[in-house]
Amino acid sequence: MAEMKSLIEKRKQIEQFRQSNSLSAQHAEQLGQSIHNSWRRSHSAAIPKDRIAAPLQQDRQQAPDALQHALKRCADDLKHIAEQSSMVVAVGDVGSTIIWSASSRQMQSAAESVHFMQGGQWKEELVGTNALALSLKTQQSSCVFSNEHYMASIHDWVCYAAPIIDPYSKQVLGVIDLSTTWQHHNSLGLLAAERCASIVQAALLEQHQQQLYIRAFASSQVLFNGKILVMTPRQIEILTILALCPQGMTLDTLHQALYGERKVSIGTLKAEMSQLRDMLGGMLGSRPYRILANVEADFLQAEQALDAGYTESALKLCSGVFLAKTESPFLCAWRDCLESRLSDAIFKADETDVLLKHVARFPEAIDAVERLIELMPKQHPVHQYLVRNKTLNGG
């Protein structure tokens, strides 16, 4: 009884905060900085006042294969948790779109009515404050209680979310969310979400036998079954080409993609392939040449993020120039294509915070600077600073 009274008081206090025109530093601290920041972003996102459900994605993009396969392995365990706890469990991709869900009988109707199900798009700029998007934004576990949610239709909910992290690459692959009604709020809810994330991560680990992960932005690196392999730049280039051509390549085609018109013998490439096969424990096929291990890569994930329209995720993954020193005509052409797609995505982006973070990491990103100048009010100090710097740099 005392606990229910405490929850009712909490709801009243949050409603007072919601009605306030501005929050003092003390009130923001009581509310929680991450919720306060999310409210601020939600208010500036021009979300329709009458929105009661998340938009549904019509042409659903595929999540990374690794996450899809892992969910197949652990779906029964997650369904059992949903049923036993009277909750709805949902897994979202890096763009906050739900790719899998399971609901208890008690929550099924409520979940369907707000599109908290496969295909529901729960990005903050579409539906406002919610745990699934907040956990991805902060890359930490998040709880959003009752009327802390932006949409009134989920003020009766409490949601707990935790990021799903690839055990080898350490990249965030998605997010898992457990939701129920606010009357059933439990201080152990976040631990339960983290436990569910660990179930998915264990499934990822289990399927990652013979797993190859390639990093090609900034400093290049190859991990095989979680261990860093010492490789030459040429060997990394070969694996990157094969990762981009999973159907395989003939020796001549691979030679052309790698060396172009440079005078390098076929025998040299054969020797490289032989060394690579030894390093990968035979996980390199021939006729055609192809990688036999499961392949993940930061550049493949960036491409998937762009395909799905997730600009923020793509910019985070592109942490530097793709294989900056490569002379491979194939890889140079692919890099040019990627950079063109990134620039196009930047000029279509509306999220100033995402672009500001990108410019903070890459001050020379003139496309992001120009887009920010377009988006920000002319009287804003940052707008004036960007214009001044662009002029000084001859832009």
UniProtKB/TrEMBL annotation:
Residues 19-37 have a biased composition (Polar residues). InterPro entries: GAF-like_dom_sf, Sig_transdc_resp-reg_C-effctor. Transmembrane segments: none annotated. Coiled coil: none annotated. Residues 19-44 are annotated as: Disordered. This is Transcriptional regulator. It comes from Acinetobacter chengduensis.
